[in-house]
Amino acid sequence: QVQLQESGPGLVKPSGTLSLICAVSGDSISSSNWWSWIRQPPGKGLEWIGEIYHSGSTNYNSSLKSRVTISVDKSKNQFSLKLSSVTAADTAVYYCASSQIGPLDYWGQGTLVTVSS
Amino acid sequence: DIQMTQSPSSLSASVGDRVTITCRASQGINNYLAWYQQKPGKVPKLLIYAASTLQSGVPSRFSGSGSGTDFTLTISSLQPEDVATYSCQKYHSAPRTFGQGTKVEIK
User: Fold this and answer.
1) Which residue in chain B has the smallest CA separation from A36?
2) Fewer CB in a 10 Å sphere around the end CB: N or C, chain A?
């Protein structure tokens, strides 16, 4: 069974860059999965951020595309998220997740990232 | 981009009631539609995929239907443990947009 664990700073300053890592266990990052990032602002709904395949192919939410980079590190069996020029509106719980056949069937526990000075 | 719109945004029903949540896509997505359940303070959980296929372990009181642009999630007999927010998601192509969620409470 796939297990996912997010890690990274819980506090980021405005205009800075949010950086998170998702460590994958129970499966190879090189398997036929898409590896995704989703976020949820406090009290609000889920927002799909983007995804990556082990080949490096990526897809991003068009509203975030100019600020988002998702990358994969096969040697560490993990993938990462970078979101630049953050504002308070980027405060959210950030989840990583995987999809084998399309829907997101495995999720990490989520990590709260607060943007504040 | 295809937009996903859920209704209602929240509902309150009694234990044992039949509950229906609707999800509408702004363009056809065949049956590439998933439903997630998120209990308060918890991680979202995949309930249904391919519009009507129950994920393993999901109680049979949950069902999904629809194709194209209009989809429904039905709870045939609402239970206290079903208090949660339910979200739909299109997944046939990126961006894999979520609906805004429907909060289900017990009356």
Assistant:
1) B96
2) N
